[in-house]
Design brief:
The chain starts with 14 loop residues before the first helix and ends in a 33-residue tail after the last helix. It has a single domain, classed as Up-down Bundle (Growth Hormone, Chain: A). With about 425 residues, the chain is an all-alpha fold. It has 15 helices and no strands. α3 packs antiparallel against α14 and α4 packs antiparallel against α7. The N terminus and C terminus are likely disordered. Its main location: membrane.
């Protein structure tokens, strides 16, 4: 006979969750401000749209290349120390760029410094994000994971609004200020982790107990994903939107800069578009209580191409924020559904590796968006570029609709709650085994 069921502490009163949420929110200003600051510095220094697209593509490739090692490290080493190290390295890199901007000014050295610091920033972000994601199950009960993933996605969307706005306005005052603010944000995030009381991972598996050759540790996550067709569907559904939205947003920055729009106005446009992302992330939990994951995935995939087509005649006007806000509002649903499904079905010993493998697969084509956008703006024009993006999204929507595994996404797997900070390394039930 079981004892009385205890109600979990609300997320707003979960101290450790609030610390992680707040610290990463502050740190997310760096990428948000960089979305405006990096392209504008490159363009101001004589770079072409193709160069901007190529550099952004290279940074995206570096981020993807860091995902699998980042996930493996988060499963093998102490997650708290890993997160502190990642945020600390980002703070130091941003401080170095501030020094270069003050001492050197415009030069070839500045261009290389921007690329190097941006590289440290994206790699550090990848090293942090999987450790934080895997640690979530140790500070949040299972019944609250969907809401916690939604709040984390909302955090990212809020930062995506305030970051570009702040970056644009700070750039208008001084090119140093966005990177100084980013350095402070990363330092705050690193310090906050010291005050999280819970252990952020289960007992470490002895090296002698690991079966098979060492390289199997790298492939086990992919094998695990390969045995779960519903998860494969969610990964396919998220890949094309990642590519398209990255390309569309960089196009807006480049077209605005070419038209003589100031950095503050460009940041304001990107920030306003991000309001849609906040609405989508905050409303995800309510939508998932009323509709199945399958319904939300299919609706999102069929609506996204329409938003891209609607943006074609508006790309050089402020009203482009309306179709793009709708697109950015729907995209978080795919991330939240994928993240929740992965967290609920993955054993703790594989959490970070499977999480990194999922983001690797869904994001592996994302760097192509800025690359295609850069060359598309320079050589083909925005209408043809956006038409190609829309056709890609339509093809993915049709494929996901036709796949039999999509019908298995009628609900999330279920598992009983356990106290935060305690976990079992047993694999939760699969979608087919869920009651």
């Amino acid at each position: 006979m079981t004892g009385p069921e205890t109600r979990p502490v609300p997320l707003r009163r979960n101290r450790s969750f609030r610390i992680l949420w707040t610290g990463q929110f502050v740190a997310q200003f760096g990428p948000g401000m960089g979305a405006v600051a990096y392209p504008l510095i490159l363009l101001d220094s004589g770079g072409t749209p193709a160069l901007v697209g190529t550099v952004t593509f290279a940074l995206g490739v570096a981020a993807i290349a860091a995902r699998l090692p980042g996930g493996a490290a988060a499963d093998r080493f102490d997650r708290r120390a890993l997160m502190i190290g990642a945020q600390g390295s980002r703070a130091l890199a941003m401080g170095f760029l501030v020094l270069v901007l003050v001492v050197v000014g415009d030069s070839t050295l500045l261009l290389w410094a921007v690329v190097a610091v941006a590289l440290v920033d994206v790699v550090g972000h990848e090293g942090y994000r999987f450790a934080e994601r895997a640690a979530l199950r140790h500070i949040v009960p299972s019944s609250q994971l969907s809401a916690a993933v939604g709040q984390n996605e909302a955090r990212n969307q809020i930062a995506s609004i305030l970051g570009p706005v702040a970056g644009g306005w700070l750039m208008a005052v001084s090119r140093v200020l966005p990177f100084g603010a980013a350095a402070a944000g990363h330092a705050v995030a690193a310090i906050g982790l010291v005050f999280v009381r819970e252990r952020l991972q289960g007992p470490r598996e002895p090296a002698a107990s690991v079966e098979g050759p060492r390289h199997r540790r790298w492939t086990e996550a992919f094998s695990w994903i390969g045995e779960r067709p519903p998860l494969q569907v969610l990964l396919l559904a998220g890949a094309a939107p990642n590519l398209v939205i990255n390309g569309v947003m960089l196009t807006v920055v480049m077209v605005g800069a070419d038209a003589g729009v100031g950095s503050a106005a460009i940041g304001a446009v990107l920030g306003t578009v991000g309001l849609g992302g906040i609405c989508g992330a905050l409303g995800a939990s309510a939508l998932l209580r009323r509709f199945s994951p399958r319904t939300l995935v299919l609706v999102t995939l069929w609506v996204l191409p329409l938003t891209v087509v609607a943006a074609i005649p508006l790309v050089d006007h402020w009203s482009v924020v309306f179709p793009l806000a709708v697109a950015v509002a729907m995209a978080p649903l795919l991330s939240i559904i994928l993240g929740t499904y992965q967290l609920l079905t993955t054993p703790d010993r594989l959490q970070a590796r499977v999480g990194s493998a999922c983001t690797f697969i869904s994001g592996v084509v994302a760097p192509l968006g800025p690359l295609v956008a850069g060359f598309g703006v320079q050589y083909t024009g925005t209408p043809l570029l956006f038409s190609g993006f829309a056709l890609l999204l339509l093809g993915v929507a049709a494929l996901v609709t036709a796949l039999p595994a999509t019908r298995e996404l009628t609900s999330f797997p279920r598992q009983p709650d356990r106290p935060a900070g305690k976990s079992s390394d047993e694999a939760p039930p699969s979608a087919k085994e869920a009651p």
